[in-house]
């Protein structure tokens, strides 16, 4: 297979993969975040302590997470057909990918939010803040670095899942690797697609890490990483107490 | 300004019940700095959290500035709108500052203003004013991690003042600070109390805090207030445990057949040469076992433990002389008359 033959296939595959991963990551974050916060709030000793809700949501999340993705993919075909109108192609794959990623991300959100110091919750409450204010002003902003690294992990997991989605007609780089590389023994093609996936994963991880370290650096007074340009001089430094 | 009646708090954990507060009646007057002192586990933290209902008292009532907060709280575990509105008028500072590390100093001070719905330029102006008030105008754009402990607590105080509260609750605000920083923070609280007429309720386990800033104090033990009153009342109370801890005078009698007398000097009496007068008038030898002078709540106070030769019966006249000089005299070994105000 020549490069001119591969090129259009690869660019379509790349696009399909990005499409599937992008949309499903977006949906997973949009739905998983409130779900994760809900798990923390309704837990014992939480602000909205509610054992039945907590148990039910926790159970659903656990069940969804224990499904092997391939099984979930197949099991959801009727549902996907109902939502998108078809069970083939990148658009259709967004449905099972999202449903697989939501509980995964919800657990990551739960862990991140649980880490936030209870003192901050108390502080916001003492100012007259409602539970919603606590979530919006304290829990989410304070756990933002962990949330971002959770998003990175989720996107990378989704890239892996999306390759699997190729096997049931999902399109994307995974589908190309299987139908051309594996089934037609085009080793060159296989190598190129896998290399592209590796590049994609490395890139996502790198961007995620950069954002996390930029967020975590806020306030520590350390100089920014050189990767992003010249180091700025430290403007405000810790010094002994005034007066 | 702050009144609690019959406040109890019982925690149920794993089937066991722990009583943190056992019928606390607290009365804090407007414009005073009131210190609640006690060891850890005495119930101080529960008490201060019950004042703004971060903890729901099991029974009893809390009223702040004439508003019965326990009535506003309703039955559910969540704080309703009215209680939240009331909380905006009660500032609170914490031992570990509880600043949001993701926000700048200025944004931390703006947080309560955001909750109050203050927007735009008003919010910025107010936050900068408050930072100026606590002496941190130049740190507005810094992050909490770039500040020292004392500076962080100043930010905490500025933040607590954002809603123009009449009452400030201080939960061991200086316990995580070194002695010098503690003094500067206490001075700041004192200044705010005087400049803004702010009523301050602070809990602490450090006697020095009470000595330095408090007008009134209460001693907590096992969930109860065992002694309470203004600092000068407490020091004037014979046999007061709080007075003894606030102002310890040591020294053991050198032998039998001696009378040990604790003398407390207040105000003018502190400047009189009473002991040498006593020795000259009655021609007796006086040994000083221990003595201390200090400034408590802005007043000079002296305490001295002296030893007179002979039994109590032989020293009735000299002791009477000391009492005549307006001194507070306690004879060791005699059962003191306890006057416990507000104690339960």
Describe the structure.
The complex is a heterodimer of chains A (about 240) and B (about 350). With about 240 residues, chain A is mainly alpha-helical. Chain A has a single domain, classed as MetI-like (MetI-like fold, Orthogonal Bundle), CATH 1.10.3720. Chain A is about 75% helix and about 0% strand. The termini of chain A are far apart. The model of chain A is unreliable at about 225-243 (pLDDT under 50). With about 350 residues, chain B is of the alpha/beta class. Chain B has 2 domains: about 1-235, Rossmann fold; about 250-330, 2-Layer Sandwich (Alpha-Beta Plaits), CATH 3.30.70.260. In chain B, the strands form 3 sheets. Chain B has a 6-stranded mixed beta sheet with strand order 6-7-8-3-9-10, with helices on both faces. A 4-stranded antiparallel beta sheet of chain B has the order 2-1-4-5. In chain B, β12 and β13 (about 300-310) form a beta hairpin. The longest helix of chain B is centred in the middle third of the chain and has 18 residues, at about 180-195. The radius of gyration of chain B is 24 Å and the shape is elongated. Classes of the chains: A mainly alpha (about 240), B alpha/beta (about 350). The interface of A and B includes residues 123, 215 and 219 of A.
Give the key terms.
heterodimer; A: 243 residues; mainly alpha; MetI-like fold; 0% strand; elongated; disordered C terminus; B: 344 residues; alpha/beta; Rossmann fold; Alpha-Beta Plaits; 2 domains; six-stranded mixed sheet; four-stranded antiparallel sheet; 12 helices; 14 strands
């Amino acid at each position: 297979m020549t490069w001119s033959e591969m090129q259009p296939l690869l660019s379509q595959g790349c696009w399909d993969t990005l499409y599937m991963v992008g949309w499903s990551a977006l949906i997973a974050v949009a739905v998983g975040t409130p779900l994760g916060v809900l798990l923390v709030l309704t837990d014992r000793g939480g602000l909205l302590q509610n054992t039945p809700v907590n148990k039910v949501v926790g159970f659903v999340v656990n069940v969804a997470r224990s499904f092997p993705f391939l099984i979930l993919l197949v099991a959801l075909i009727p549902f996907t057909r109902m939502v998108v109108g078809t069970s083939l192609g990148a658009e259709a794959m967004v449905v099972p990918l999202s449903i697989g990623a939501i509980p995964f991300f919800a657990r990551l959100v739960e862990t991140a939010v649980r880490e936030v110091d209870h003192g901050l919750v108390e502080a916001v409450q003492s100012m007259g803040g409602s539970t919603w204010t606590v979530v919006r002003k304290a829990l989410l902003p304070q756990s933002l670095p962990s949330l971002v690294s959770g998003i990175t992990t989720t996107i990378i997991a989704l890239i892996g899942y999306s390759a699997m989605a190729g096997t049931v007609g999902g399109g994307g780089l995974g589908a190309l690797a299987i139908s051309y590389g594996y089934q037609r023994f085009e080793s060159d093609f296989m190598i190129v697609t896998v290399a592209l996936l590796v590049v994609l994963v490395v890139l996502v991880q790198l961007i995620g890490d950069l954002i996390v370290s930029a967020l975590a650096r806020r306030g520590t007074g350390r100089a920014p990483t050189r990767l992003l340009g010249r180091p700025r001089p430290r403007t405000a430094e810790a010094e002994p107490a005034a007066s | 300004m702050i009144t609690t009646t019959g406040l109890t708090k019982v925690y149920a954990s794993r089937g066991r019940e722990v009583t943190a507060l056992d019928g606390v009646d607290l009365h804090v007057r407007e414009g005073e700095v009131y210190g609640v002192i006690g060891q850890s586990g005495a119930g101080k933290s529960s008490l201060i959290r019950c004042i703004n209902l971060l903890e729901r008292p099991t029974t009893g009532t809390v009223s702040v500035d004439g508003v019965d907060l326990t009535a506003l709280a309703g039955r559910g575990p969540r704080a309703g709108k009215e209680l939240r509105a009331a909380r905006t008028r009660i500032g609170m500072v914490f031992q570990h500052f509880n600043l949001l590390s993701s926000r700048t100093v200025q944004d931390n001070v703006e947080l309560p203003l955001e909750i109050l719905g203050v927007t735009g330029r008003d919010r910025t102006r107010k936050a900068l004013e408050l930072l100026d008030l606590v002496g941190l105008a130049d740190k507005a754009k810094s992050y909490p991690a770039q500040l020292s402990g004392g500076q962080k607590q100043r930010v905490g105080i500025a933040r607590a003042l954002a809603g123009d509260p009449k009452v400030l609750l201080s939960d061991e605000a200086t316990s995580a600070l070194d002695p010098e920083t503690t003094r500067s923070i206490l001075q700041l609280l004192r200044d705010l109390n005087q400049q803004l007429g702010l009523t301050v309720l602070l809990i602490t386990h450090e006697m020095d805090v009470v000595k330095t800033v408090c007008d009134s104090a209460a001693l907590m033990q096992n969930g109860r207030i065992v002694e309470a009153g203004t600092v000068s009342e407490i020091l004037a109370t014979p046999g007061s445990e709080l007075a003894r801890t606030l102002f310890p005078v040591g020294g053991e009698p050198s032998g039998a057949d001696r009378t040990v007398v604790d003398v407390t000097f207040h105000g003018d009496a502190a400047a009189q040469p009473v002991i040498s007068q006593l020795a000259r008038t009655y021609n007796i030898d006086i040994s000083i076992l221990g003595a201390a002078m200090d400034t408590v709540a802005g007043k000079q106070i002296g305490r001295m433990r002296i030893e007179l030769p002979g039994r109590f019966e032989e020293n009735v006249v000299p002791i009477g002389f000391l009492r005549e000089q307006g001194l507070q005299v306690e004879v060791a070994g005699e059962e003191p008359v306890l006057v416990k105000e507000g104690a339960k």
